[in-house]
Amino acid sequence: MAVLPIRIMGDPVLHSPAAPVEEITDEIRTLVADMFETMDAAPGVGLAAPQVGVPLRIYTYSYADDDGAPWRGVIINPELWMRPLEPGEPDPDDEAEGCLSFPGERFPLRRSDEVLVTGLDVDGQPVRVQVDGWRARIMQHEFDHLDGILYVDRLGDGDWKTVQKIARKRGWGRPGQSWTPGIDDLEG
After folding, report:
1. Rounded CA gap, 114 and 175, in Å?
2. Model pLDDT for residues 59-74, shown as the tens digit of each residue
3. What CDD domains does the database record attribute to this sequence (predicted)?
4. Assuming Cys at both sites, which of 7, 67, 79, 188 could form a disulfide with 11, CB separation 3.0 to 4.6 Å?
């Protein structure tokens, strides 16, 4: 297994829809193992294949609940259904999220509170995940990556302008930018 470089905002693979996985091969299983290692090293709660430069519809997730109970898995070729969003502005304390492809920052974003995701695991077996709260947020965030959407693309005008200033200051927003967890220092 290996820790893979994570692409940063501006890399074309992050802004294009990913292709379905046609066949689950040993190469796909190795990619998934490397994605888990990369996600854990970052550390993150989710990682989509496009974030490591692979334009395929795969994401991993890992989260511990308030009692420390683990929740971890992979979904290949996911489909997502969600409850409609509650109207209103996001709560900056309870609805802020971050992204390994825009590291070190968090912004409030309204997400659906409940989702259902179906797909396949690395053995080609059906997966069905119905979750709410932060787990639903993780599923939506990672699914967005597969459609070429970063969470910062969904922000309101004020936060979007802040994102652009941060990206310019850090030299992000250009193709080919990446960082490797455990190796690169991303401090501004």
Report:
1. 34
2. 999 998 778 888 999 9
3. Pep_deformylase (cd00487)
4. 7
pTM, to two decimals: 0.94
Question: By percentage, how much of the chain surpasses pLDDT 70?
Answer: 98
Residue 15 labeled ligand binder: no
Question: Is 99 annotated in some ligand binding site?
Answer: yes
Q: Which long-range contacts (CB under 8 A, 24 or more apart) does 111-115 make?
A: 111/85, 111/136, 111/137, 111/140, 111/141, 112/82, 112/83, 112/84, 112/85, 112/136, 112/140, 113/83, 113/86, 114/82, 114/83, 115/80, 115/81, 115/82, 115/83, 115/139, 115/140
**Residue 145 counted as an annotated binding residue:** yes
Provide φ and ψ at 25, rounded to 5°.
-110, 175
Q: Which is catalytic among the residues 105, 114, 142, 187?
A: 142
